[in-house]
Design a protein that fits this description.
The chain is α/β, with parallel strands linked by helices. The chain is 42% helix and 15% strand. It has an 8-stranded parallel β-barrel with strand order 1-2-3-4-5-6-7-10, surrounded by 6 helices. Strands 8-9 form a two-stranded antiparallel sheet.
Length: 340
């Protein structure tokens, strides 16, 4: 299937290049025809190949996109600039979508891409802590006051889902193994608010995708995980494949599915001088993780390395002159074209 996609892409690219011409700068707006309008048959074949590829058995790619800019100044601020082979795009700011964002979402859906957003419990917890700190209140996130706040925030976030194809639910939690009875009861009360909100949403949106993110081993009730299309594991503080394997193994406790595991990894910052994240030592983490995921053997590993989830995907647009070079390299590593 991937070679069919590559063939269609080649025809599409040649058509795109044929449109490039040298013109003088004029003080009038010139509307160039789109590739779709100029080469409809090639474009249709390309889109069909994309949709067939995404419906096939392949390594999945999620990508988080910063859509905070509501008056875009460049192509990099549109999700339509993200490589077409990305399966799922998560919009970081799902509220108050601009008209151009809704149009972009429809365009990428035509290429088989799903558009989701993240409901982050850690973000809700941090907002509560910041608010309580500013007001001199109790910063604990295991109180009835916090639980009431949590419910309100979850209700507001899930209410945004009408325009989207699904949600990612991020829940890190804590290791419940050695909690006291009192602490465990408070922890489960908070956890159950999250689980009930997710279950209610999923029951009302059976046709939409549900993805879990964080540390699934910290759930005392893991039944929701069987309703998830994928489980994304965060690998904070991991800088080599041995630690990566250990992190995955620690997550796969009893009740955690093993056939849909994605590894979260970030692009590097836009500036090449900034090495604060996205690196394992001096090597780009994205490429290392893609290589590790592509090399999996379920029978030996005991789980399926199903794909990756890319933080800060837009960084790669700006860092590589609009080419998304390293994101594309990772996708090609995960899903290489067959060789004869």
């Amino acid at each position: 299937m991937k070679n069919k996609l590559k063939t269609a892409l080649g025809l599409f690219a040649m058509g795109s290049l044929a449109m490039v011409s040298c013109t003088d700068v004029e003080s009038v707006e010139i509307v160039q025809p789109t590739v779709e309008e100029t080469y409809p048959e090639s474009y249709a074949a390309y889109v069909q190949a994309l949709n067939e590829y995404k419906a096939s058995d392949h390594k999945i790619v999620y990508a988080w996109f910063d859509n905070s800019e509501k008056v875009p100044q460049s192509a990099g601020q549109h999700i339509t600039s993200i490589p077409d082979s990305v399966d799922v795009i998560s919009m970081m700011y799902p509220e108050l979508l601009a008209e151009f964002e809704l149009n972009d979402m429809e365009e990428v859906r035509g290429k088989g891409t799903k558009v989701v957003y993240t409901v982050s419990v850690p973000d809700i917890e941090q907002a509560w802590v910041d608010q309580q700190f500013a007001n001199g209140g109790d910063q604990s996130t295991m109180t009835s006051e916090f639980n009431a706040y949590l419910q309100i925030q979850l209700d507001a976030l899930f209410a945004c889902s009408a325009s989207f194809d699904g949600v990612i639910v991020e829940f890190v939690g804590q290791d419940p193994t050695f909690m006291t009875e009192t602490t465990l009861a408070a922890y489960e009360a908070k956890q159950n608010i999250v689980l009930n909100a997710v279950s209610t949403w999923k029951n009302a949106n059976a046709d939409k995708i549900l993805t879990w993110q964080g540390k699934p081993q910290n759930l005392t009730d893991k039944s929701i995980l069987t309703s998830c299309d994928c489980i994304i594991l965060d690998i904070d503080d991991v800088e080599d494949t041995n630690r990566l394997m250990l992190t995955v193994q620690q997550a796969l406790t009893e009740g955690v599915p093993t056939d849909n595991i994605l590894i979260a990894v970030s692009t590097t910052p836009e500036s090449s001088s900034d090495t604060s994240y996205g690196y394992w030592g001096s090597t780009r983490a994205l490429g290392e993780v893609a290589n590790w995921v592509s090399a999996g053997y379920p029978a030996t590993d005991g789980f399926t390395r199903a794909g990756i989830a890319i933080y800060n995907v837009q960084n790669d647009y700006y860092a590589t002159g609009g080419l998304y070079t390293y994101v594309k390299e990772a996708i090609n590593t995960l899903n290489p074209a067959p060789t004869k």
